């Protein structure tokens, strides 16, 4: 992989149009699109693979900092979740927390409202690490647990209790996107 100096020299050698395209994706917080452009233009002539492309794009994220238009977090406060449930057609029969993950956000949890008629899984919130930390507050007692799991349990458990329905989280202590799902 290229060191920082080599990445900077490679970046400075790009035509302005390509630099603008990559920075445009970065400013829109489109990480995968930016990495795709870097590998598309750098793989054959310069041997730039995905790992180096991620480092180059990471440099651009650091360069732009607060100028990046981040997608807003979904709300986890009880009032907002109750309002979201109110917009679901059908009776909610359970609230479920499900692990998911990707290369951008690492592990996160999807909070779902399950309905029976129609049988659907309705997305209520996506809980990433940063949202979990803000929701739980500074100095939250986690007992060594993943903050995403703790936030999901609290928000989902409280919502389920408010709705008088069960709350299901198959793997609250270990990220597992193949954990058993709630069965009707």
Q: What is the CA-atom radius of gyration, in angstroms?
A: 21 Å
Sequence of strands across the biggest β-sheet: 3-2-1-4
> Structural class from helices and strands?
alpha+beta
Number of helices: 7
Cα distance, first to last residue?
49 Å
How helix-rich are the residues, as a percent range? 40-55%
| Large-scale geometry | elongated
List keywords for this structure.
alpha+beta; elongated; 2 domains; 184 residues; four-stranded mixed sheet; 7 helices
Question: What's this model, at a glance?
Answer:
This protein has 184 residues and is of the alpha+beta class. Helix content is 47%, strand content 18%.
Mind explaining what this structure looks like?
This protein has 184 residues and is α+β, with helices and mostly antiparallel strands. The chain folds into two domains: 64 residues, no CATH class; 92 residues, no CATH class. It is 47% helix and 18% strand. It has seven helices and four strands; from the N terminus they run H-H-H-H-H-E-E-E-H-H-E. A hairpin with a 2-residue loop joins strand 2 and strand 3. The N and C termini lie far apart (49 Å). The mean pLDDT is 91.
Record the SSE blueprint.
Blueprint lengths: L3 H9 L3 H12 L3 H16 L3 H15 L13 H9 L5 E11 L3 E11 L2 E9 L1 H8 L10 H17 L3 E3 L15
Parallel strand pairs: 1-4
Antiparallel strand pairs: 1-2, 2-3
Helix pairs in contact: 1-4, 2-3, 2-4, 3-4, 6-7
């Amino acid at each position: 992989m290229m060191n920082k100096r080599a990445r900077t020299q490679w970046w400075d050698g790009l035509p302005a149009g390509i630099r603008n395209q990559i920075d445009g994706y970065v400013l829109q917080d489109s990480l995968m699109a930016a990495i795709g452009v870097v590998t598309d233009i750098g793989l054959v002539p310069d041997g730039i693979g995905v790992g180096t492309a991620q480092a180059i794009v990471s440099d651009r994220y650091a360069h732009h900092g607060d100028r990046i238009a981040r997608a807003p977090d979904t709300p986890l406060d009880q009032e907002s979740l109750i309002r979201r449930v109110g917009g679901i057609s059908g009776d909610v029969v359970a609230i479920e927390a499900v692990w998911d993950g990707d290369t951008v956000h690492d592990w996160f949890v999807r909070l779902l409202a399950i309905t029976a008629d129609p049988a659907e899984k309705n997305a209520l919130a996506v809980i990433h690490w940063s949202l979990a930390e803000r929701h739980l507050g500074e100095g939250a007692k986690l007992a060594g647990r993943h903050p995403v799991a703790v936030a999901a349990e609290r928000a989902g458990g409280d919502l389920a209790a408010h709705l008088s329905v069960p709350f299901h989280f198959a793997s609250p202590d270990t990220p597992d996107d193949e954990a058993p799902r709630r069965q009707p």
